[in-house]
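Priority: medium. Attachment 1 of 2:
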């Protein structure tokens, strides 16, 4: 039960780590920029953080369980699977959030903004 709650809360925690785009504001209409930024964020929401976290968590569980089984007994396999699941989910969630950030940045660049970071 604890592992499943961790996997559900993980995307929320990772989304807090996302960076706001820094755009050169010289000559930029702030109202238009706000509209464009909102639309670009909508595009970024198509990246599934939970899906990526779940997929990588499952792979991590299999790998961790296999390593635990090789190195020990069934208890080690279960612990290895748990550690692998959390580690994989974290990595997958981070990758998905990074992809969302790139989508926003590329969208803004495509609309003519000078994105600095």
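Attachment 2 of 2:
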């Amino acid at each position: 039960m604890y592992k499943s709650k961790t996997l559900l809360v993980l995307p929320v925690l990772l989304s807090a780590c996302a960076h706001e785009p820094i755009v050169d504001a010289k000559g930029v209409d702030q109202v238009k920029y706000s509209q464009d930024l909102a639309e670009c964020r909508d595009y970024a929401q198509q990246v599934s953080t939970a899906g990526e976290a779940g997929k990588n968590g499952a792979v991590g569980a299999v790998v961790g369980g296999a390593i635990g089984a090789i190195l020990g007994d069934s208890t080690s396999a279960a612990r290895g699977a748990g550690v692998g699941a959390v580690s994989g989910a974290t990595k997958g969630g981070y990758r998905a959030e990074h992809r969302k950030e790139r989508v926003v940045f590329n969208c803004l660049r495509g609309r003519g903004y000078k994105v600095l970071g």
